[in-house]
Amino acid sequence: MMEMSFHLLEAFVATNLLSAVAAPGTVTIQVASLGVPLPAVYNGVQLVINDANAEVITLSGFNPLVSPPTVTATFLNTHNVGAQLIGATFPTQAIAGDPFFTQSEILNYIARAQNELLARVPLYFLLSIQEILYGQIIQSTVCNPIEINRVAISAPNVTLTSLTRAANVVTGVSVSPHNLAAAQKFSILSAPDSSYNGAFRVATVPSPTTFTYPQDGANSTTAGGTLGLWVRLYETTQEMLSQTNPGWQNRFLGIPTSFFEDRVASYQFGVNGKPNSNFPVELLCSIRDSDSLTLLDGFLVPDLCLHFVKYKALEYAWQKDGEARNPQLAKYCETRFNKGVLALQRWMDHMVQAQAVGMANAGRGRR
Question: Which of 131, 166, 222, 267 could be cross-linked to 193 through a Cys-Cys bond (beta carbons 3.0 to 4.6 Å apart)?
């Protein structure tokens, strides 16, 4: 927002506290200045105190006639002398009640721009665990997805009584026979103590309901959890399923083997028939951020890519009807954003290709 204020030729606040906030509450404090290059504060403006107790304050008053000037706000935290007070305030005509831009407006531009970049170049992924529900073909997603990249199902799915870790060896006890064998791969899912979750290989099988495996960690015990093994579901389409078996939507499945995307309403996914039980599934999705941001929020887009987000947000600002409208600058910012998207797409493609080549070379080395 500070960088955008420079481009939009708006004054901003970048100063320090000259008196401390000794206790939470409504306090009047001295500051080194009220704005650069001109006073940039007004009642209702939000500013960030940038220190170890960072917070957003809303000014309820200010006094430019005393030296040093003062501001009044309600504080939730204490702050020392010298703490930074910063903010892109977009003050032009704000005091008159007819601002060119508002802080919330600019934040919405930034949120829209970030999600536009994430939609065109997926850069952030979420791995989540949920359940496929009995008798239900269409399944909801628990994340905020742009695109589903991988779905894996856990079957078999065995409930655990306990997991005990001692001397870096875990002993698992299952409610029913686990059917594991020595050296077999498996996963621990949804353990109350998340340090037990992960993928492992069986060491020994003392009985049909007990098994052991190595895991470094402190000695402890947890009750519950699930034993399973993630198996990938292959992506298909409803058309392909119908061609293969016209009655697939009425068929009950032992274990689903494929999934398809459903974008009719909310982004969901479906499986190739009605599951005959609930099954844990692991979902890997590229995701978008929320539609609104606050002054203390971070970004899902890496810092290296944020200047592309800035240009897209500036495009929105210069497309706005009114005195600040500038179609030429809006077009320039759109071009900068599109070139950034193209560069990121090429970079991501190169990363995938380089990984594929590396895996192929590794395979040749093993043979």
Answer: 222
Say if CB 260 and CB 238 are below 8 A apart: yes
Domain limits of the chain? 2-96, 102-123+301-348, 125-154+231-287, 158-228
Question: Angle at Cα 117 formed by Cα 114 and Cα 122, nearest 5°?
Answer: 115
With beta carbons less than 8 A apart as the criterion, state whether 79 and 50 touch. no
Q: What's the CA gap between 186 and 177, in Å, rounded?
A: 14
Give the chain's largest Cα–Cα span: 83
CATH level 3 topology of 158-228: Elongation Factor Tu (Ef-tu); domain 3 (2.40.30)
Contact 285, 118 (CB under 8 A): no
8 A C-beta contact, residue 271 and residue 253: yes
Judged on CB neighbours under 10 Å (0-12, 13-18, 19+), 142 is middle
* Interatomic CA distance for residues 204 and 348, integer angstroms: 42
Question: Where does residue 301 rank: exposed (0-12), middle (13-18), buried (19+ CB within 10 A)?
Answer: buried
The verdict on domain 2-96 having CATH code 2.40.10.170 is yes
For residue range 158-211, what is the model confidence (pLDDT) as tens digits?
Answer: 899 999 999 999 999 999 999 899 998 888 988 999 999 988 999 999 999 999
Model confidence at 366, pLDDT cuts 50, 70, 90, reads very low
Rounded CA gap, 254 and 178, in Å?
18
